Amino acid sequence: MGRPSSVPHVLGNTSLAQFDALIIGSGAGGSAAAYVLTSAGLNVLVLEAGDNNFPGLDDPTPGMPVPRYSNDELKGPIRLFDRQDPILEPRTFRANDTVTAQADADVNILNRTVGGTTTHADMKYPRFNEVDFHLASALADAGRSFPGTSFIDWPFDYDELEPFYGMAERVTGVAGVAQGPGSDPFASRRSHPYPMPPSPEMYIGRVLSAGARKAGHNPIRYPAAINSRPYPALPELQRPPCVNCGFCSGFGCPNNSKSSAAVTTLRAALLSDRCQLRFNSFALRLLGGNGHISGVEYADPTGARQTVTADRVILAASAMESARLLLLSDLVLAAGPAAHLGRHLLFHFQTIGVGIFKQRVHGDRGQAVTNGLSDFRGVNEGGTALHPDGRPLGGIVEFGTSSEPIGAGKEALQSLDIAESTRSPITLKDLLVESPFHTHIGVMIMQAEDAPQLTNMVDLDPNVRDVFGRPAARLTYNNHRFELDAAAYYAPKLVEIARQAGAQFGFIDPTRGIPRTRHVLGGLRMGSDPLASVCDGFGQVRGFDNLYCMDGGVMPTGSGYNPTLTLIAVALRNAANLVSPGAAERQLAVGPL
Amino acid sequence: MLDARDVWRWSLSRRRFLQGAAAASSLLVVPRAARLARALDAPAPVGFLSAEEYAVVEAITARIVSSDDGSAGARECGVADYVQALLSAFPGADVNGDGRVGAADLTAVARAAGSDDGAADVTGDGSVDDADRALVAASIFGSVLLGEAAFDGKPIFAGGPFSDRNPFPDSATGMPSTTFPANAFRIPEPLTRLQRLAWTVRLLGADAVPEVRDNPLATSLPDVDLRARYRQGLAAVNGFSQTDFGASYDALTSAQQDTILAKVKRQRRAFYELLVGHTIEGMLSAPEYGGNRDRAGWDLIGFGGDSQPLGYTIYDASIDDYRERPDKPNSTIDPDDPCSGFSDEMADFLRIILVRLAGATEFPEPFCFSGE
Question: Which of A134, B83, B257, B297 has the maximum number of C-beta atoms within 10 A of its C-beta?
Fold first, then answer.
């Protein structure tokens, strides 16, 4: 057997040559799919565009892998060590289709690395609400109509996904509070407690929670896939508790306490002997026709073009890239995909409330976000229906601060111009040392649901090309009254929380046109109506007998919660169905995690 | 029995002592500012920037963040060393000027051996010799041998997971251990083919990489073509200095330098922003990148820097729960925080920028939450 691999740019079983499934992307969805399929005895090839920053990921020795990640702001956020680099992979943006899209350095750039964006996310893993799975019906029943939106119900309900939520929490290792103080009164029913208690609270989380409580809200301990205990029990998969080093959101974890896809589901798959992972291997297009995908063309680590075949192909490259791969491939699409591919793209709409505090809030310690509230999601207690008082559908609020002094320092440049133009004596050094927008800042980010719209989409830019000569992804996106009205409704409440928390100044940080969140969803939405969806109810692309999507692209609506746990639960469910059609729930017992 | 706080103090102060052991006598008696100043006597690191250019970078960044108030500024933090390391990555190895670093460049160095051919004199020491060939070879084969290092081992991407600045936690006691990791930050991470293409664009410009010809960002982003931008920008700075004051920038008085800096800001805005950005990077990035000398930048702003593997909370297996560091707590206010707020000048400035310009509210009775 060829594991651990000694072949450059390959992990796992290097002797595998025939594959039951080929998965494009090793992030949250692709790794969850690899875990289920290998557990069921299938041989799987995973292609990952990025590098492997987890040397020893396929080595069963306890304590492995030893990450190449570190507490280093320059390396990641500034120099893009593990990011999609806009010099290599540009994207363009336009607010609507009457204007020419412009290239921009940050049109939702995600990670390029084994483990995908779960390596640098701060791993906030709440569930969606029960009502989210039939929100279109709930809105219609309440007489709340939003012309121009394209809400559809999900093809399955919360009860069907609930066991997979539990499985996702267990296999990734989520720390949280299910009942009592700190639990979320708006969360929907759950059949199991969280596998770990919550991690220590950050000071800023406690400050803002106290303010929220005084303002009449229900602050929560934020569920997070970061170890608060040694977890799981299995020695070769066990990872240590988090040390709250402070470099969390935007950073790979140096000690593997962050439950990224790499060190959880993907590692389990790689240790099964049924998985081969080729990294620095960039999928370029799908091959095939007549409703069947025969394989994939990819650029290998030297840049040479290679093709590989498999019985099934699973798209898990993230919502924009999975849609783009289909658009780049010379394929005839069925009616539903032809009309909806790349469309109904979702991002969440952030409203950012800020408090500037007299005291230092030391965001250089802790997990970026440990507290928040769900009162602004707009659902009833238990999340089974819309809130009876008719409040808008907003989203969960994250309580955080700034942890990156270089980034904050660069933001000071604009302040410096204002200081000079107003003859203030404040210098750049004053801004760095007193750092009102870094050491003294409390930030409340509402991750509000953005309504699906046919016109919010990713397609191919006619002018800009990537390093492989392929048309760049072009994002067309404009916000709807649905989320703008909700933002206007909840914004003053965020400022009031800052006041109640003791802040000296409070305000709303204005948002720009390009979505700032990394929560990219939709574009290959699932649905029951073949003419209104790209994928069927199990993520199979309509019109193809062996093509699936198992990333965030399949989500018809985005709810108002961080989406990754739901993404994983859906991937687990749909992968289980791929193994045993119609008997998905019976596959829950598989796997070592 | 020791109080937890004492154990923390002991462990961390012992570490400081061990780190400084090699130069213990001077470290213990020489005041910090003098120590930092002394490091300035060291010769400027060789690299892309000429000695004259290096002097201008050092002088102008020292006006962007000065040490006029007696605390460390850009000069004391070694910002010029940081910039030199960044610009010298792929150390001048494109000897034949074809936009690529490869075997042809090694051949060119070999042909020029013994001469004073400027292009082949990669080290800039006045002669073409084995040292030049070694640097070109390191650049070509760097991903195997050295990572992608600048002349003196400064990385584009520092290694991981840990530096040697913090000990491992001890889960048996809930205290810091006395074991420190080796400093992996010193070992540059190798670049992939794609990363090398991107960094070639950053350092040498888009013309050097035909693969990015249909990407407008490869020419429009502020952080591409850095060597040319510095060369031209510094020439402009010195041009202003010569025209207005008859001397190169680094030879001017502080007041004259401030006048020229304001002119650069008005007339060379992009270069000014590049300098400010690199000043901040050079002050606040890990010391392994060449700046933040002796952690002077982190100390200046009260930033803890990289904290792994210790972090700020330790899991104690005996109680199956966490312990926090008393001196730097995770969940409570800092014990030494006076809750005194901002300086009068900063508070006034915040009223301008937040209340007047951004519509913020100033609340009448701010307070510092210390518990429930």
Answer: B297
